[in-house]
UniProtKB/TrEMBL annotation:
It comes from the Bacteria. Residues 1-145 form the UspA domain. It holds the Pfam family Usp. Gene3D superfamilies: 3.40.50.12370. This is Universal stress protein.
């Protein structure tokens, strides 16, 4: 039985991510394991201000939160249907300890985290905390934005860099696709007119998609991304995307990709969950 690890700080954004993770787990026949991620800056700020640290309960509130999720899940499910088992790990609250614990669970297939209240998804992904989660994780990390609607994802978009490792990452999305009957759009965003070398790589990827992947509903799109003001409209090609995925890239490439919707005139925001696939050897 696979497990989805959820990092929560008990904020409203974290609750959105927790409920979304449960929705995924129910369809994927997986369980959920909660971790309480306490920002390291809180006790430091309290000490600096001369304030006493807040006394925490033994389980950091995870027992009550797990019970709340169980009750919500039961109330929204048919009697007798298989429901994910919700457990929690209250022994680890520092990020390094949480990620070490997750790495020790061979059954954990994905990490889910929410966007902190008052923060935008792209900025959070590029920030220190999420960067550390993504860098340490050997499994996919899903970041769930505020106000994400719990619905069955009909379309997943994967932003490719035309590298060989993409095929393995795309293949790992197969279970998610099959659980929800989703289609997968593999998109190459072209900053310039594709030359012969790029066209050859695009063709090689298309061939590999149909030859090596044992899942239907996958198609390739080469998308013109040369406009000076770049946005996220490509996610709506054919029909709106419900989840976006990409493989972890070097930090400057990640920054360029996620800052694409921000300019002096207007900011375009990502409103769908994002899955960062780990780099593969």
């Amino acid at each position: 039985m696979k497990t989805i690890a959820v990092l929560t700080d008990q904020s409203s954004g974290a609750h959105t991510a927790g409920r979304y993770a449960l929705h995924l787990a129910k369809k994927m026949k997986a369980n959920v394991l909660l971790f309480n991620l306490i920002p390291a800056t809180v006790p430091q700020l309290q000490a600096a201000c001369g304030e006493p640290e807040m006394e925490e309960t033994a389980d950091n509130g995870l027992a009550a939160y797990a019970l709340q999720l169980e009750q919500e899940l039961a109330a929204s499910s048919f009697t007798g249907s298989r429901l994910p088992e919700i457990s929690f790990d209250a022994g680890h609250t520092e990020l390094v300890d949480i990620m070490t614990a997750i790495d020790g669970h061979t059954d954990i297939a994905m990490v889910v985290t929410g966007v902190p209240d008052g923060e935008e998804l792209a900025n959070y992904i590029l920030g220190n905390t999420c960067n550390r989660v993504i860098d340490w994780a050997r499994i996919p990390v899903m970041v769930v934005p505020h106000d994400t609607v719990r619905m069955n994802p009909e379309k997943i978009a994967y932003a490719t860099t035309l590298k060989g490792e993409d095929i393995q990452s795309i293949g790992e999305l197969g279970e998610l696709m099959e659980s929800f009957g989703s289609e997968l759009m593999v998109a190459h965003l072209c900053r310039t007119q594709p030359d012969k070398e790029v066209q050859t790589k695009e063709q090689a990827l298309q061939t590999a998609l149909y030859r090596d992947l044992n899942c239907g509903g996958v198609y390739f799109r080469s998308i013109d991304d040369s406009q000076s003001v770049r946005d996220w409209k490509w996610l709506k090609a054919n029909k709106p995307t419900d989840i976006m995925a990409l493989m972890l890239r070097p930090k400057e490439e990640m920054k360029s990709f996620f800052k694409r919707g921000q300019n002096a005139d207007v900011a375009y925001h990502i409103t769908v969950p994002v899955i960062i696939m780990p780099k593969r050897p």
